[in-house]
Amino acid sequence: MDGPSGVVFPRGGDGGARSTSALGRSVVADALRGTDPVGARAAEHETNWRSGYLLHFRRLLEAGLTSAEAAQRIAANGLASLHERMRVVPPEGGETGLPEWLDAQVTDPLSTEVVTGRGQPDREFSLPYRGQRLRGDDLQRQLDTWVDGGIVEPSCAEAVRQVADNPDWLDTSDLRVVVLGAGAEMGPVHSLLRWGGDVAAVDLPHKPIWEQLLATARRYAGRLHVPVRGDGELAGRAGADLLHDLPAVAHWLRQFGQRLVIGNYAYADGGTHVRVATAADALTAHLLAHRPDSALSFLATPTDVYAVPAEAVAHSRQVYQRRRTLARPVRWLTAGRVLHRNYPPGADPGIIDCLVPQQGPNYALAKRVQRWRATTERAAGRTVSFTVAPMTRTRSVLKNRVLAAAYAGAHVFGVEVFEPATSNTLMAALLVHELRNPAPPREHPWRDEAAGAAHGGVWRVAYAPRSALGLAALIGVGGTRH
Predict the structure, then answer these.
(1) Separation CA 191–CA 117 (nearest Å)
(2) How far apart (Å, rounded) are the C-alpha atoms in residues 205 and 227?
(3) CA 136 to chain centre
(4) What distances in angstroms separate CA 182 from CA 119, 137, 361, 372, 439, one per listed residue?
């Protein structure tokens, strides 16, 4: 079959090419149309989406700040547009829509292998950090240090303290945590299995991924539920591709009897990320229709646009005042092009714009889909864990040389870049906190998104992130060379 199959982008008019930019423009415009018609028209007429998308994704956030209803309308309309526009090319050819495909009869179903670990469940929360495992007083001191330095929001530290004080929360064996993208560095699989939980793992049928996952499962105390087909070595027949096996994955997950927690941690490069995000969201909506008691889990990227509380704005202003003398020569030499103030004085809420052009519009759309789903389902009364994660030295980030250099120099501006083991354990603790102590929806979705944020400091630094990105990269390159 020529061209992509499975979940694909729609063709342009008169059967034209499948364009990622056209899809992005249309979905953003549809999301804005009912709340910000001017913004919708601007998105539709954007001629250079690959660089111009930054303005329109910021507008998605700003247009929703007028009311909770506006934010929820944007989220619902964006999801509806994506699902209506994206298409499926099944193996037999032709095209169909996502709902029809998910409801199709499964002719090659997945079966289940369960791997039970040999270890003892860890019943004390500990956090790997710089070669140590922090627990007890050491953990409390590190949380205090992060709050004082503006690395995490106080609500994040408080949530981790509650998990540490309630170690029985760590046992999630009464739930079935579905991890889409189970092999992801930022996913919760290691922690959940260490604590003795039940994980239904979904990832590509790629043997090295499953060899690592199976080794982890055998080492720890939990149970890993593995989708399989055929006979032979387990790692060689495990896995399912969301882009092509979505009906089979949906059928497999519907069979589990425990309450589901559906976690989306899947990542791919470029336009494939939007395809995977669409497939994962379609699967989520399908499962919620069949299992309405399910909870949801997402990791929010720090490189997006968020509203932040007045306390973060005030912290940033204090840091700016301390640094302004040092920054003046740099601003003079660059004619004011760098080191802009992070927020206007007194902003409430402030808007932190951390979108990074190097990540591109497909990454922004894929992550925004998750935010829209979190907003929509939280408004419907479901338990949702949606937490802003810190900048982390994952393989997917470090292969981008500009971002790798910027991460290496970020400490100069007061940003802490985390190692994957620290980030994924911290995020797993916040997931457990939300599952065991769910908060009712706050008065506006932006406050739900800000709660528990572990942003690494970017919300409270002196300068707008993009205005410092180039300098951070230069510093990082210099530090690496020396």
Answers:
(1) 13
(2) 9
(3) 29
(4) 20, 32, 24, 22, 26
Helix (H, G, I), strand (E, B) or coil at 306: strand
Residue that has been written with the tokens 């309308």 in this structure: 73
CB 389 within 8 A of CB 300: yes
Residue 300's SS3 state is: strand
Q: Say if strands 295-300 and 132-134 run parallel, antiparallel, or are unpaired.
A: unpaired
Asked whether the beta carbons of 309 and 455 are under 8 A apart, the reply is no
DSSP 216-233: HHHHSSSEEEEEE-SSS-
Give which of 64, 63, 65, 39 is closest to 52, Cα–Cα: 39
Mean pLDDT (10-residue bins), the chain, 482 residues: 82 82 97 98 97 97 98 98 96 89 92 97 97 97 98 98 98 97 96 98 98 98 97 96 97 95 96 98 97 97 97 96 76 72 95 94 98 98 97 87 89 94 98 95 97 97 90 77 49
Give the type of residue at 114: V
* Residue type present at position 454: A
Q: For 234-280, give the secondary structure using H, E and C.
A: HHHHECCCCCCCHHHHHHHHHCCCCEEEEEECCCCCCHHHHHHHHHH
**Distances in whole angstroms, Cα of residue 216 to Cα of each of 106, 182, 281, 345, 392:** 31, 11, 27, 49, 21
Cβ of 292: how many Cβ atoms within 10 Å? Answer: 10
Structure tokens at 240: 């399912």
Q: What does each C-alpha distance from 164 to 69, 337, 434, 451, 470 come to in angstroms?
A: 36, 45, 14, 18, 39
Closest CA to 384 of 424, 444, 453, 433: 433
Decide: residue 470, CB within 10 A, 0-12 exposed, 13-18 middle, 19+ buried.
middle
φ/ψ of 175, rounded to 5, equals: -120, 160
Query: Which tokens is 71 given?
Result: 């934010």
pTM for the whole thing?
Answer: 0.95
Name the DSSP letter for residue 409.
Answer: H
How many CB atoms are closer than 10 A to CB 270? 12
